[in-house]
């Protein structure tokens, strides 16, 4: 039996703890904040009309089989803890300039038909051709990449890729390059470009292999958890406690002790003696690990990749809007948005708030999250990280966040959804308000396809979560936990 300390009680940390505890290890989870769940955050706003409840992180569950596997591996059934509601549409895409609306769904043939009805037969034929390629990329990556350790690009090169798989994956091609070569309709290109932002990346630089992301979503479906996605954190915490995991909140880990090339424990603020450990699993951003907890300049230098942050409005809205659960309102000029969000530090061009951004609106049709006759809106806009570097924005500059919130509501009104006179309240969260994530980078600081390795640079150190392999998003984070737990193995 190993003494294992998990730093961070996000989904990756809790999932790893549960998997390790069920195999006989002694597991302690240390969480900086007062609540578990990590980016799977929640916010409640009480008003005279009643309480509004918001998911402040992920609002869509995909690849549900990953979570069924997790609960079964820890001796339970997912359906005993969570109520999964399938979504159709998964996402409502609203194109600019009064363009058509395209609702996505988990039936590939039906979605192709919807593409044809909204955008024409040529667009539907293009989508079918792209879909065949996406299927091949998914099949090649799902087993060989997403479910096993990948410590370096050499590991990818050593895989026994079939030539057809390599042709589909197109190493070296960007997602933008792929959609320009495959899709003639600019609106379909917008739809595909959006999936780069799922990893915090710019589609003009993100790898074409990310075409597997929409394939997974539109093949296996999108799901809502009744009561909000935060109920997943409750379920994982319950599994951990039932399995004997010790979970301590309000515990600030300041250092990982690793003399002699192996971990010995962690140091916690306010405690004289370190907490001993044979294994440490870090469920915090890789940048935090290699900058603060176990400084490693070489690995830190590899985390210079720029990643998106998010600017959020939490709105209490009177009446009903008729919106879908997930809605995306596209801008006229998507590239202008990416230029603003990422900036061009090499040319001395600073990042700035996008004047005409893509706006994501989530409205859960769930009486548990809003008073009768009202809606709880989660509004997200891609934004530059918080900071003072050329590729960041100082979101604490007086008046900036409030002014940008006004701008977002104005843009929504211009796109046909005006709620400015129906607001019960408006809460604003800029990237500066996202605690625990460097710069407010909601997808992890290492955006892109190849993330930092799960195995750390010293014996007994492992990384899980959105900033490590296989990447961000609830299913990928949960798979990172499976990879690490299997590598550590059962108690001896």
UniProtKB/TrEMBL annotation:
Corresponding gene?
A: crtI
User: Start and end of every Amine oxidase domain?
Assistant: 12-294
Cofactor (UniProt):
FAD
Q: What is this protein called?
A: 4,4'-diaponeurosporene oxygenase
PANTHER family under this entry?
Answer: 4,4'-DIAPONEUROSPORENE OXYGENASE, PHYTOENE DESATURASE
Give the record's keywords alphabetically. Answer: Carotenoid biosynthesis, Oxidoreductase
In which pathway does this enzyme or protein participate?
Carotenoid biosynthesis; staphyloxanthin biosynthesis; staphyloxanthin from farnesyl diphosphate: step 3/5
Q: What is the taxonomic lineage of the source species?
A: Bacteria, Bacillati, Actinomycetota, Actinomycetes, Micromonosporales
The protein's matches in SUPFAM superfamilies, at most eight in alphabetical order, are given as: FAD/NAD(P)-binding domain (SSF51905)
> Pfam families given for it?
Amino_oxidase (PF01593)
For whether the record's keyword set contains Oxidoreductase, the answer is yes
Give the reactions, separated by semicolons, that this protein catalyses.
Answer: all-trans-4,4'-diaponeurosporene + 2 AH2 + 2 O2 = 4,4'-diaponeurosporenal + 2 A + 3 H2O
